[in-house]
Write a structure and sequence with these properties.
alpha+beta; 5-stranded antiparallel β-sheet
């Protein structure tokens, strides 16, 4: 299943003009990804996550103060960090 995430993530990024970092290939990608929208062009965060809590931890600790988009590639939904402890499902992509 991880291989299918890799292909889907890379295809989405190519289509949307999002830069994929060199380190993206180091680990099997999980379903949750973050995109740093403060970068120019926007850049995929090299680490992905299998569960929402790990993605939330990233939003709290490492992405604090940065404009970041989180995507769920299993449900094909944009997610919004609620500012506390969770991700709220948004529109389908």
């Amino acid at each position: 299943m991880f291989g299918s995430y890799k292909k889907k993530i890379e295809a989405y990024c190519e289509e949307a003009g999002i830069e994929v970092p060199i380190g993206f290939d180091r680990h099997s990608p999980g379903r949750y990804v973050a995109i740093d929208l403060d970068s120019n062009p926007p850049k995929l965060v090299a680490t992905t996550w299998s569960n929402a809590q790990d993605a939330v931890h990233y939003m709290i600790s490492l992405a604090a103060g940065r404009k970041t988009m989180v995507l769920d590639f299993l449900q094909r939904r944009e997610l919004t960090f609620n500012g506390k402890d969770g991700l709220v499902p948004g529109k389908v992509f």
